[in-house]
Amino acid sequence: MKLACIGTGGYFPNDRRHTAGYFFPEIGVLFDAGTSAYRVLEMRQTDEIDIFLSHAHLDHIVGLTYLLVPIHNRKLTARLHARAEDILAIKLHLMANAIFPVDIAFEYCEWSGSVDLGPRGKVTSTELKHPGGSLGYRVDWKDKSFAYITDTSSLDTYVDFVRGVDLLLHESYFRDGDEEIAEMTGHSCTSQVTKIAKAAKVKRLGLIHIDPFKIEDDPVGLDVARQVFPETFIPEDKQIIEF
Ligand SMILES: [Zn+2]
Ligand SMILES: [Zn+2]
């Protein structure tokens, strides 16, 4: 399975990282549609894609509008899976006439907890703690698995949900020492995340949703992270991960 990390940053894009987007080009499955979503247009290998939204904060949805042209020209069908309240917010606000005056023909699919995409995987979710809530996702294929946990305070409530996955992508917006502001804003610090990866016995951990004010090579404290969970890395934009 090939995963393209098209947008690994949080909040707003910088020259190194666009905002949230994790795309499986071979099977047309995309998690979140931040400013990175334009990269889907050149990378996609299918005429149908399924988009799964963690939540409707702007850094995760603004790129939906970038998909207009191929959908309008009937070159692309896009099913948009999201919580009912997030679909409503997108229709009312992102697609408001004063903001984006063209209706994009998404197939809106209200999320009910799981969807079976056949050979393209079974997608399940867990609820996460974040202002307004957010969804963490897991995909299981025949012999591989993947979990995407973003925009959340780290909690042991979802350890079982991510248990044993081949790849866990988990947000790590803050470095250790910023636990108070992390809790206040519904985000995670590095060691909180590595402890979850260790407890869940995942195979690899990618730290994502990086603070955009930190453009250095190691924005999260990788040495500290690897002391707890050695198989930790920080994906870069456009990195392809095979597992
Ligand atoms: Zn975010
Ligand atoms: Zn958020």
Question: What would the keywords be for this entry?
Answer:
about 240 residues, alpha/beta, seven-stranded mixed sheet, 14 strands, binds zinc ion
Spell out the blueprint of helices and strands:
Blueprint: E1 2-7, E2 21-24, E3 29-31, H1 38-43, E4 48-52, H2 58-61, H3 68-72, E5 77-82, H4 84-94, E6 107-110, E7 114-116, E8 122-128, E9 134-140, E10 145-149, H5 159-162, E11 167-171, H6 179-185, H7 190-200, E12 204-208, H8 222-228, E13 232-233, E14 239-242
Parallel strand pairs: 3-4, 4-5, 5-6, 10-11, 11-12, 12-13
Antiparallel strand pairs: 1-2, 1-14, 2-3, 7-8, 8-9, 9-10
Helix pairs in contact: 7-8
Bound molecules: zinc ion (2 copies).
| Number of discrete helical segments | 8
* SSE string: EEEHEHHEHEEEEEHEHHEHEE
Number of strands: 14
- CATH top level class name: Alpha Beta
Q: By helix and strand content, what is the structural category?
A: alpha/beta
Instruction: Give me the CATH fold name.
Output: Metallo-beta-lactamase, Chain A
- List the bound ligands: zinc ion
Mean model confidence by pLDDT: 97
Outline type? globular
Helix content: 10-25%
Low-pLDDT sequence parts: none
**So, CATH architecture?**
4-Layer Sandwich
Q: Can you identify the CATH superfamily? A: Ribonuclease Z/Hydroxyacylglutathione hydrolase-like
